[in-house]
Amino acid sequence: MINIFEVSETNRMIGEQNLDVRTITMGISLLDCVSEDIDRLCENIYDKVTKTAKDLVPVGKQIELEFGIPIVNKRISVTPISLVGAGAARTPADFVKIAGALDRAASAVGVNFLGGYSALVSKGMTEADRNLINSIPEALSSTRLVCSSVNVGSTRCGIDMDAIRLMGHIIKETSEKSAIGPAKLVVFCNAPDDNPFMAGAFCGVTEGDCVINVGVSGPGVVKRAVEGTKGQGFEELCETIKKTAFKVTRVGQLVAKEASQRLNVPFGIVDLSLAPTPAIGDSVADILCEMGLEKAGAPGTTAALALLNDQVKKGGVMASSYVGGLSGAFIPVSEDQGMIDAAAAGALTIEKLEAMTCVCSVGLDMIAIPGDTSESTISGIIADEMAIGMVNQKTTAVRLCPAPGKKVGDTVEYGGLLGHAPVMAVNPFSCEQFIARKGRIPAPIHSFRN
Amino acid sequence: MKKTVISVVGKDAVGIIAKVCTYLANNRINILDISQTIVDGYFNMMMVVDMDDSPKPFSDISSELVQIGDEIGVIIHCQREEIFESMHRI
User: Fold this and answer.
1) pTM score, two decimals?
2) How far apart are CA A152 and CA A160, in angstroms?
3) Range of the domain at A419
């Protein structure tokens, strides 16, 4: 039977070290909502989402209460809307109507966010994909809960540079319409079908009609455990992280199973992630510092992060029957107080963050850049990150937030879990002619791996 | 049978166990296991209980125990046993 020390260890993790389940995300397929009439389509979508997810929030709260574990977000992901809307939406304005229906549905069931206002264009764009992408600035500024993502590359297909050029423009326009807009928009390479985390969640076409995916968290718990390894070797460090990740993930697995049973919806995956929040002590950067770095971004950071990411996966994989999503340590700047401090102190640059994304989940995340950064430079940063994902067969993503009127060193407030970010310097040299080239980068060769 | 763990943490005082146990008895909650220790002057208690025969729903019991904790100056958590089992047992 459980003993008193185990009970108090668990409750200390929850009470003092910010252990929580970051999200229960219900994936809902909207393929059966398709109609040729835009109003009918919006009605079908609203009805399906509100009917399928009506119990999601109450069940989430019930689980929180019974197990005493906070579940910070209840979310919905839907089939990429460029597919669902292709038959009915002829213009970007039509797609904005769909975004409105999604926003109303999300609001009606009380979820925190709804993801899937997405297009998958790693090889080329259909007319519908293009219309959806062009509608993103308006869709994100006129809705509250809708999140958008665009997958522009994959290891199998290469990178669609036309889409990247377009996304440079769209991100800039989105930031001009709404300060928080770009925080709800992600550009992906190798986007997974079952990611429960926002802003990039969507319910892939490989999924069933409805599925429950859970994202765990717990940087604070790992940090506290690593504190106990000061002066010890790498073997002890790795063992400690692995064991802690196992415990954290088991809670996620339990919550996923319970939610799936109570909602009568199949369990999909647990996403093994270390997802920081701006709360003090809930930081991935702090774990790196605890390992022995003065600040995140110091030499050794990429190695420390690689170790951390790998041990989290090794511990987590044993704790859950199905693992998926983005699984790994997140390094968003604005959502992690340690990252914010490191960036403000000049220890962390976009280039170092880019190196870090080679060994962790997911990418350049929640980085504020000067408002006068050119569209082609934004596209260039995206292209670099996509190339890392394509060549290394991993998911990479970019969530850049141009801050209109702000310059390097200023601070941008996003509020809540999105936190605040110091505006970071962008390399001033141009890539305009490279980005202006039309077409795509071919898929990489899968042999001669160097 | 669904087991529940009730944990009590706080400054030691006379009658903590009595107060909690009286509440449990009045609500037909059976105590299966109980252990208690004092660490640095702080009272730590854990009970494993069976609530199946209680007429009250889990949410009421949980919130009433929290309220009792407030009255006697301790923190009381009421959690289903599975969260500890899954975290600490393979």
Assistant:
1) 0.94
2) 6
3) 214-441
